[in-house]
Amino acid sequence: MNKWNSQQLAWKIRRHGIEMTHRSGGSHIGAVLSVADIMAVLYADVLQYRPKEPDWEERDRFILSKGHAGASVYAALAECGFFDPEELTTHDQDGSRLSGHVSHYLPGIDFSTGSLGHGLSAACGMAYALKKDGKPGRVFTVLGDGECDEGSVWEAVLFANHFRLNNLIAVIDHNHMQSLDFQENTLEMEDFGAKWRAFGWHVLEINGNEQGELKAAFETAEERRRETPHKPVVIIANTIKGCGVSFMENDILWHYRFPHDGWEYDCAVLELHQVKPNGVEDPYTPDGIKNPETPTEADDIYKDHTFTYTWNTSYPEQMRRAKAASGSSFGMWGQKGEKEV
Ligand SMILES: Cc1ncc(C[n+]2csc(CCOP(=O)(O)OP(=O)(O)O)c2C)c(N)n1
Ligand SMILES: [Mg+2]
């Protein structure tokens, strides 16, 4: 049905994400890389849609509530046939439909996002209306973990339970980081799963950069919502911010910084080329990078850029916990040597 399998699509999302932020000087590449596997599994394996008929009544609805990662949904939509992937190069530029945060001017986007804390509420409204009208579509939304600091998220969590919205599936991109620091240094959320459970939701906790785990979780979510038709489902997907480019992983610098000309862009592209799945072409640098620049000792790489580092003595422990929770470590692509199709 789909042109790409989820491994191929995740790679495409990452490669487009690097290019789009590189060209536009736009932010949030760390957030795009962390959510890439979630988006790929959704668009390759889970969501029901018709790219040439984006308003198809029976489609599943999707809202990327962490709208600052707009590049990820744009790349997924373009690669799945909603619009020409060439348009991705206009990302975040004057006059483009592809604004830095998600815009409903694009086919396949049902709701604009970027101001955090609204996607789940909108998803609740859609799920409620579909249920009330006896329509088949499901509603999926992806939130950031830092986004869950917003009070409106928890109002929506209550609402979904009260109205028994079992056609609603939320995914949290739990990368343990927000814009300036680790989540637990900003606003403590643990035990995150227990909070959702206490609000009446089915909770599944997985590694959100492992596509096998993601696929299994979406299947379980489908079973759960049929078995217990009174509960919404949340998948807490533990991820790594920046996943797929070793020097961006778990480094908060890459929330706002874009890959600059020189070693930042060259090394990011090279790393992606090392794990390019069969059957996928790189539309920007098909042969990789000839004579790539590499970082020197003086370059700002593998240093800590979190806000609280200077005073927070528990930092190394937090780092260890974040990595353990996502079941991975720095440079995971290189270590896993994945080349699946
Ligand atoms: C209401 C609102 N406040 C602040 C921001 C600025 N902002 C953009 S991204 C971000 C951090 C979000 O962290 P998280 O939800 O964990 O997303 P991640 O980038 O880690 O995936 C913030 C505070 C915003 N977009 N909306
Ligand atoms: Mg986060």
> Could you say which small molecules are bound to this protein?
thiamine diphosphate, magnesium ion
Order of helices and strands: HHEHHEHEHHEHEHHHH
How many E-type strands? 5
- In DSSP terms (H or I, runs of 4 or more residues), the helix count works out at 12
Structural class: alpha/beta
Percent in helix: 25-40%
Q: Uncertain runs with pLDDT below 50, 5 residues or more?
A: 328-341
Please, could you describe this protein's structure?
By secondary structure, the protein is α/β, with parallel strands linked by helices. The protein has one domain: 3-Layer(aba) Sandwich (Rossmann fold). The protein is 39% helix and 9% strand. Strands 1-2-3-5-4 form a five-stranded parallel β-sheet, sandwiched between helices. Helix 1 runs antiparallel to helix 2, helix 1 runs antiparallel to helix 10 and helix 4 packs parallel to helix 5. The two termini are 16 Å apart. The C terminus is likely disordered. Bound molecules: thiamine diphosphate (TPP) and magnesium ion. Thiamine diphosphate binds next to helix 2.
